Amino acid sequence: MSERCVNLLKKKLTAFGLLIFFTPLAHFLSPLYLVADRTVYLCYLPYGLAIAAIYIFGRSAVVPLYLAFFITFQLCFSLFSLAAALAFAFLTPLFVSCWLIRRWSGRRWRYNLGNQGLGVRLLLLNTLAPVLTMLLLAALGQKLPVIPEMPGSYFTGRLDMFSILSLQNLMLSATLFTILFYFPLRMLAAPRSGFTFCRRARHALYGNCLSALWWGCLLAALMLLLCFPVRHMLISSYLVPLVFVIFTYGIMRFTSRSVLWLWALCCLLLMHFNLDVLPLKSIFSATFLSSAFIAFTISLLYIAAGYWKSRRLQRIALNLAVTDPVVQRLNLRALQKKLKQHPSGTLCYLYLHQLKFLGCHYGLMMKTYTKRCIIDEIGTQLRENEGVYQITCDGVIVLLQGEGIGERLSQLRTRLKQQQIFWHNQLIDIDYAFAAGKFTRENSNLYRLAGQLNYLAEQALMLGGVALLDKDNSRLLGHVSDQVLLLQKIKQALTGQDIVLFAQPIVPCKQGCLYYEVLTRLRSADELIMPDRFIPLIAEFRLSAQFDRLVVKETVAFIHQRQRVNNPPPRLAINLLPMTLTEPGVAEEIIALFQRFSVSSEAVIFEVTEQQGLINNLQVNNAIATLRQAGFRIAIDDFGTGFANYERVKHLSADIIKIDGLFVKNSLDDNIDRIIIKSICAIAQEKRVSVVAEYVETEAQKALLTELGVDYIQGWLTGQPAPLLSLP
Fold first, then answer.
1. What is the distance between the terminal CA atoms of the chain, rounded to a whole angstrom?
2. Contacts of 231 (CB under 8 A, 6+ apart)
């Protein structure tokens, strides 16, 4: 026998074992009502038990239900034909209705007792099935003997109040008491579901214990009042709607399943102990009470469905709010929520080097997939109360707890570097760097600290991949704060046009005209900020064009002023930062500035330092060509390093090449440096381009460079930078 068959057999035997016990019990617990010398059921509980069994066991409950109902009726009436007829009439319409619901709602219709397909179940299972059952019982009543011991009017073909009450008690059992039997059956069939039920109830009471206590006490007091044997004219079933009001509040405050189960239990108690106060014990009172219970139950079901659907949508919305919509992982808002629960820890920024560059090549989906893999891998290494969070830029934030953060981050970095991420069979090669600092809700600002760690993480690539701040976030953090303060000073200086121009002479080795390179300092209060401090920040924060425009404007104004007083100015060399030339129309603006001040283009040389991204940039090439056509001479600065190479000289018409000082400093002792300088001079001579050597400090260096073919020298030997206004 296959495993599937064994499991199916176990399921059927479990269903039969539970039903053979609960069906007779439900039969004898069904509340009776004496009216007009006739005993009628107010609710026939086995009908609800049968529906609960179908919800739990599905088709495996068909045979056990027939057997359990048949045995129960056989024990009650001792007539085989009557027992078989009753079992057939009660259960067959239920199975037909369940089949219709399955066709309507799909195969999983019975796996959610609460909200899904509530209207369909109420229509088919709780209304159509009882009507079909009554019709079958009426038809069978014509052929079977009447059994006086059978309460109700199930076998009558007449439509009177008793038959209406019989139909109502089936509908009430299907609507209300299915809930009463569903949870006990499910817990007995699968004990794990009992733990789930209790856990959900406990979770619903979290933070509501006092409200739950008051609610329970009020409900218990009202139930004791209604079910107590001592009667009073003011204590009657007219107070039953108060129970409904209490449950309406409870179902919106606590878990719906446990409250609905308590509602079914309370209704059963009221039917057993509160019916003797019905006026005149009339059939009309019984039908009214039965219809009231049906209406109240349907109302509670819809209230529960609507309320908990809205709560579920709220949870979904909250989950979406703390989840990045693209990467589908927790975001910075989730970190804020976490820090409210655990207000201290170590905040770590993981910088993903080259991810942005690779994303431009492979596309956004690769970037998203890579971040998911990295976040998931980090998540496997975290402890309790720790987390990893997606942020919009090329990084990830990790919250760690405890000590030994440096060692953990080093191990985590090693593990990440060992992880291989493939995108369309291409290995994604990125590097990782961590920066970490202590966070406390009282003394830290999350966004400020995250921004500082972002900067430090990029620098950490040069520091072994992990940079740590001390306990007070003072070490290294001061450097970051200084950089932020410096950036503010730079922006203020550029906005206020508060710059100071210096000039350093560039002297010919043999013959030629002396000229000067314009060097810029920024003024902040009484301080002059040197280029080695502000140039990197200007380039990083895309202030190059604004800075260069200001330098060119001040230089042109200086030349124009000298011309006005008939004092011929010296030739000047102005540096243009690499990103400036990518600005649309920047060359035309420079030319227009010279024309407005009536300054000749021969008075200025523009020095250009190129970067990798600008080698084949059409905008840069067009800007340089436009400047040359206007009569400006072009110099390639820092030649031999970076990306200003021989190939660039071959295709770009430059007038001057400035050899980087890196090759000049050790040229007296390093034969390789001399060979490089000589080869550059040979190419320059072939292209009829002048050569300038930077960082010349001694006469011996000057003599060697002159011998190798250098045309001009610049450095401490020729003179230190002096204010531009002091030039002769």
1. 109
2. 276, 277
